[in-house]
Queue: 2 jobs
Job 1
Amino acid sequence: MVAEELLELRAKVAHHADRYYRDDAPEISDSEYDTLFRRLQELEAAHPELHDPNSPTARIGSAPVAGFEPHRHQIPMLSLDNAFGETELRSFDERVRKAIGTDDAVQYFAELKYDGASISLTYLDGELTIATTRGDGTTGEAVTPNARTLAGVPLRLTKPVPGTLEVRGEVVMLKSVFEELNAARLERGEQVFANPRNAAAGGLRQLDSRLTAQRRLSFLPYGVGFSQDAFAPSQAGALDRLRNLGFVVRSEGKPLLGIEAVISFVNEVQAMRAALPFGIDGCVIKVNQVDLQGELGFTSRGPRWAIAYKFPAEQAFTKLEAIAWQVGRTGNVTPVAELVPVVVGGVTVSRATLHNYDELIRKDVRPGDTVIVQRAGDVIPEVVGPVLDQRPADAEVPTAPTECPACQTALVRREGQVALKCPNRSCPAQIQSQLEHFVGRRMMDIDGLGGKLIARFLDEGFVSDLPSLYRLHEHRDKLVVAEGLGERSINNLLEELEASKTRPLPRFLFALGIPEVGERGAQDLARALGSLDAIRQADEPTLVAIENVGPRTAAEITAWFGSPENQAMLDAFWDLGVRPTEAEAPTGDLFAGQTWVFTGKLEKFTREMAEEVVRRWGGKLSSSVSKKTSFVVAGPGAGSKLATAESLGVPVLTEDEFLARLPEGTL
Ligand code: IVH
């Protein structure tokens, strides 16, 4: 009986996990999914004899292993030759045509070159049995429990494939995840990841797969290493078949006739590189037909039928004018490089983070140095290092500040942490950063209140802490006559503030700046506990039981809510009428099971309002268009998402058509 229930439950959870993570089109609510998942965890804990390594619970990781077993690849994992520039691509094409003895245009398959760590996944009769890193190309390391946590790795193929199938691809960290994890690391005073590639490669080699799961890595397949039976006649066919077996295959890759079409492709990809959700370092061009690939064969380095077209590095030289010390909202004091503005990868950079003092010393950068600046994995600009032979004779090693640049309080360094911290809770720079965070678009979303105005309000004593924002109206008379403000802008601001009092609870929680509680964490907390009161009162065991909340986060949350200052602050918010909306349940199921994408400018709604409406009616939002998208709402200025929707045949609505679908009185 139990065995049967377990099987059914596993199939059900696996189905819904795929609908959510792979297809971006859930059929049940998050809390229904959580309930199923917990039930499965409980059953499995009670029946260890019915263990299944490919149960969907494997996605969250399992107990650490002592070390990685070496694993010899059935077929070596080779590397690729590189081509820089069009000329080298044309020479590749000539070599290919000469080798197969044709003057005709060759059919290539051009795809993205994912910037991560390669991995090989072996399926036996459709079950994931072993996953290995590339290693030296001949022997890799078995990282199977880690691979089970990767988004886009089917634990079981969705169609029968008898015998052995070895799928190869790249493990990447999405740029959004990279930024989120680094922000959290910085906050905790930990070393940041240098770039998404290192974060992915390091994550893949964790002995504790629960830590791999926390990195939220993704798998992008690019081919088949070994297949018992002929897998597909072409690269295009292989990718299609992988898609059918449950892999997430990107849609950018395409078959192209002749090298000139390939050259246009690589240029197009380079232009849209920054808009991709993950880093790429070029394109890979493959001869499409497998029989031609066989004719071309391999050199000791790699296949003759494929080449990596590498983009030029996004680096530039500039002068480091000074090192400024910046105080963050939790008091961390971090160095920032002030640079002579320079264009890197199409973006002008004048400041770049140096993360912390240790990093500054390790890189040995000094004011006055000529430095190399790069956009790490085309995300945030960073200083790579100095050009030593251009160092001025008088360039001095920077010293770490001993006191806070804003309030002159002596800085402290917590045991075992790299961050310097200003311990003064009333430090004006901290309050400034806290206020800037609080009013941000993804938090309380108070339009018209930016850094400059906050600085001025703080300076003139109109605000002193977060709750005091909601007392600004008491200063209305003085504000409307203040230079450069005026009645209209003050009225607007006061209205914005008033409206923000009932923002959804997760936004309010995120806005408070509780250590370890980011946007996702705030959503998890609100969903699990329902009300601010319940969160205030939750003890550590209650918190640890919530998805994605570990012991450290739980400890930080209870410490934060336990502090008398924070309690007084929450009481002050309450007294001032701040009532975050706790209703998480959808208003109705009008959009249930649908995925919506908004693009371009909206005129009647703000983007946030429109998205909120979709969510309230049970719909899901996505930032990219795929076959799974139900509707795209496109306003003026809509670009590639509109084009993608049209090419995929996804229905496109104007803002008015969207409005017309809403029940009366929604706006
Ligand atoms: S095909 C025989 N396709 O790039 C080698 N590789 O520089 C076949 N990579 O080790 C590799 N994206 O880890 C291929 N679309 C793609 C790729 C890709 C990233 C990585 C791969 C390989 C390295 C070679």
Job 2
Amino acid sequence: MITSESESVDQQVSTGHLPAWGEVESLTAAAFERYRRLDEGEVADYIPILADADPSLFGLSVSEVNGATHDIGDSGHGFSIQSVSKAFLYALVCEAHGHAFVKERVGVNNTGLAFNSVIAVELNDGHPMNPMVNAGALSTTALMPGATAAEQWEFIRTGLSAFAGRQLVMDGEVYASEMATNSRNKAIARLLESYGHLNADPLETVDIYTRQCALLVTAHDLAVMGATLADGGVNPVTGEQVVSPEVCRDTLSMLAASGMYERSGEWLFEIGLPAKSGVAGGIVAVAPGKGAIGAFSPRLNSAGNSVRGQRAIAYLSRALGLNLFASHATPPTERAANDHRA
Ligand code: GLU
């Protein structure tokens, strides 16, 4: 254990500001323009209906913590949220059960294996390991408040809608297509159950998880949802406090560690932002205290991340000064007298 909750102290935050509105607007347009013709990557097809997506779609949106938004391209086009939901599910469960409980039950460390790996569960004594892989997302779903599966589903749909600032609806065709082909997720849920690590019915849990993955969102929605995590849990458009600032911090640390599948390390190294992607081509990237970027384009790289989305976010991370790890040297004239360093 690195720290315990009893050691926590009141925290100041370390963030900054976005450039002026007009500059964010023109850089969002520049990012879109740069990558709109890039046609590398393949549309996902392991969920049959996703193969029908139009590969030319590309939407980009930036949402600022002051409520301003910047939208370009197909930023209003609906697509299934898929694994991007895991980020917001995790936030809702942390809000309901607290930091220590969720850390112990779901975990916070990487598996080093694919997001839908069965063997990762076996190798870790039946522990789901982290909330961004399917095993962890299934246990997160099972921990949702609610006396019945229907109540849990409604809690999730309402919670994700609060992040988006509008009522989200499920795409019934995506749900049916995935339910007909998701034997692997059912196997993972059964395996967690066999270890005593799933406190709900496995097939009901898979059903709810599949519904939440089929919720329809837009790139604009993802930007607003991410900006809520960047804004201490307050939706910057509606003003609603959706989760606490501590939950946002915990959620963003998980996205930084494992939000971009097995390329999470490379993503953090190159782009320096917590982010989560999904197989329908959505990505949300969050700049704490500043805002968030939502991107959608269905062509994916071999790790399952949207090619245009990644490139556009990488550009904006640099151009808007979002990389969490970047700093400039302090000018010599601003340095404190250094007699204490002797
Ligand atoms: N519903 C998908 C699955 O469970 C989500 C995958 C993803 O977006 O990573 O396989």
